[in-house]
Amino acid sequence: MKKFALLLAVVMLLGVVSFAACTTNPPAESSAPAASSEEPAPAASSEEPAPVESSEEPAPVESSEEPAPAESSEEPAPAESSEEPAPAESSEGQGDNPGADPATVKTSTDVSKVSGTNYALNAKVTGKTNPSIGNDYSADLTDGKASSSLTYDNNWFGLYYQEGKDSNTKDGEAKFVVDLGEVKSISVIRMNTFLGATSGILAPESVKFEVSEDGKKYVSLGKQSFEAATEPDTTLGWIGYSLEENVNAQYVRVTVKVRGVWTFMNEIEVY
Ligand SMILES: [Ca+2]
To answer: Which of 200, 82, 182 is nearest to 137 (CA)?
Structure first.
């Protein structure tokens, strides 16, 4: 009986030991799969970088940028050769500088805007004689002062004409020549004048503008005619020509045809 009891005890002991082993192992095994379940995630994330690598495949696209060297090969030839002709053209313009032909240059009667130097400022004017009928409208035509209102004094230069009683006009016409001192490249010629109708002072019938380089041969830029106001009017204004291209001139001649008795003018400018 003692042997059987001892054997039984041994069997039971082995059973306890094996049970303990079984109860301790399972948690170890359960923890193992848990860890393995976590690993797949990083594994999946490690798969994602793959597409990133595929996005790096555009690298071959970079190789398509190789045409760049082709461009660099284009730069040397045409670019430099096209720049060389330019300075050649500019040097030609400076050399000749003939100015446009006054006979054919395109003009505009809008002379409200000017820029640069007024070459006529303080320039000598010939053909100007003061009225000699008791009035003294003898303003300087190139003193830089243009009247801004109608007055009956020396703010204005008066041209007078009555048939049979020529004063400072010849048959109602007067010619003024402005000497710029030397040949200038000019773009605007204009004259400040009275364009209204009041007290025997009327807008000029016409005004002609001419230019010359030598003072002998004149070329006309054009002639402008003006309507007579039917009612009292004291309009003033700049009349003349703005040139699309500069012309060369030292002398500017302005021919004014008087309408009625008096025509008032004040200033001549050349830019
Ligand atoms: Ca003046």
So the answer is: 200
Between the CA of 152 and the centroid of ligand 1 the distance, in Å, is 14
Whole-structure pTM over 0.70, yes or no? no
What gap in Å lies between CA 232 and CA 217, rounded to an integer?
40
| Contact present, 173 and 255 (Cβ < 8 Å) | yes
Q: How far is the CA of 185 from the centre of ligand 1 (A)?
A: 23
Whole-angstrom distance, CA of residue 93 vs CA of residue 85: 13
- Which of 259, 257, 220 lies closest to 241, judged by CA? 220
Q: Which residues of 19-52 are buried (b: 16+ CB within 10 A; e: fewer)?
A: eeeeeeeeeeeeeeeeeeeeeeeeeeeeeeeeee
Domain boundaries, the chain: 2-57, 107-270
Amino acid at site 199: S
**Ligand 1 centre distance from Cα of residue 147 (Å):** 7
30: left (phi over 0), alpha (psi -120 to 50) or beta: alpha
Pairwise CA distance, residues 162 & 146, whole Å: 26
Q: Rounded to the nearest whole angstrom, what is the distance from the C-alpha of residue 139 to the centroid of ligand 1?
A: 6
Q: How far is the CA of 244 from the centre of ligand 1 (A)?
A: 26
Which residue, 170, 82, 168, is CA-closest to 131?
Answer: 168
How open is the CA angle 225-259-198, to the nearest 5 degrees? 110
Q: Convert the pLDDT of each residue in 49-97 to its tens digit.
A: 444 444 444 444 444 444 444 444 444 444 444 444 444 443 333 345 6
What CATH code would you report for 107-270?
Answer: 2.60.120.260
